[in-house]
């Protein structure tokens, strides 16, 4: 069972590694094309995903069988137990995959984010000691990246990349062009480099996070440390 969960954990990274090999190696592409022709059109990635996909279908299949099984049938209780086990298994798989993806993203941020902020370059020395992204936070809970997205500071129009964690909110600038950041962020061989814009805002220090009445994409943040509201505009409402 542990080997299977390890396989599930590594699938996302394995898929990225395989795609990187396909993109960079013509011989590999040619071989995989022959492979796909001989397997009825199913790609290597498709084969590697099947062990996970198959297990996720078990709850639906068992549920259908249970629906057409009489309550007094000898197999009824066993089917109910099997359904519960299948659901628990899927929940565990999903959690482990989610935790693994979160861990990889935190490691990526630690490598690609420069801690010397625009407001104060000396912040680098403070944050190097205080923030290890892939670790437990001060509440002794594993740090999780909840949401990230491109934001614009109002009224300057400065573009910032925001990262919302389960304990703080962090803003960074993008050292290179921001037009293709979505295709590079969290990628294994990404050249994307970020720079801390300001000290992170701990969620416990945020007093107000208001939406703008005039603009659904704009919102302001007031903290215990900074009395002046920090006004931002997002490109999408879900980022706001």
From TrEMBL:
Record keywords: Coiled coil, Cytoplasm
Domain of life: Eukaryota
One Pfam family linked to the record: RhoGEF
Stated name of the protein: DH domain-containing protein
GO biological process, one term: positive regulation of Rho protein signal transduction
Source species: Rotaria socialis
Signal peptide span: none
Chain ranges of the DH domain: 1-96
Cell location: Cytoplasm
Source taxonomy: Eukaryota, Metazoa, Spiralia, Gnathifera, Rotifera
GO molecular function, one term: guanyl-nucleotide exchange factor activity
First-listed, main subcellular location of the protein, grouped into a coarse class: cytoplasm
Gene Ontology CC annotation, any one: cytoplasm
Cytoplasm listed as a keyword: yes
Residues in coiled coil: 76-103
């Amino acid at each position: 069972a542990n080997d299977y969960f390890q396989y599930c954990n590594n699938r996302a990274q394995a898929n990225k590694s395989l795609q990187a090999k396909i993109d960079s190696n013509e011989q590999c592409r040619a071989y995989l094309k022959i492979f796909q022709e001989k397997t009825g059109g199913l790609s290597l990635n498709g084969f590697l995903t099947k062990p996970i996909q198959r297990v996720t279908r078990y709850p639906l299949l068992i549920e259908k069988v249970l629906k057409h099984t009489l309550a007094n049938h000898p197999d009824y209780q066993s089917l109910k137990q099997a359904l519960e086990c299948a659901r628990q298994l899927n929940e565990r798989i999903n959690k482990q995959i989610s935790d693994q993806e979160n861990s990889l993203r935190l490691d990526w941020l630690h490598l690609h984010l420069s801690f010397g902020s625009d407001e104060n370059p000396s912040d680098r020395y403070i944050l190097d000691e205080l923030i290890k992204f892939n670790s437990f936070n001060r509440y002794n809970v594993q740090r999780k990246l909840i949401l990230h997205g491109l934001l614009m500071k109002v009224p300057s129009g400065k573009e910032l990349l925001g990262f919302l964690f389960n304990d703080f909110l962090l803003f960074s600038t993008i050292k290179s062009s921001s037009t293709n950041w979505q295709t590079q962020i969290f990628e294994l061989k990404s050249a994307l480099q970020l720079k801390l814009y300001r000290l992170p805002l701990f969620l416990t220090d945020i007093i107000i996070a208001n939406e703008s009445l005039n603009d659904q994409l704009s919102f302001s943040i007031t903290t215990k440390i900074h009395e002046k509201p920090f006004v931002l505009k997002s490109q999408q409402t879900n980022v706001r």
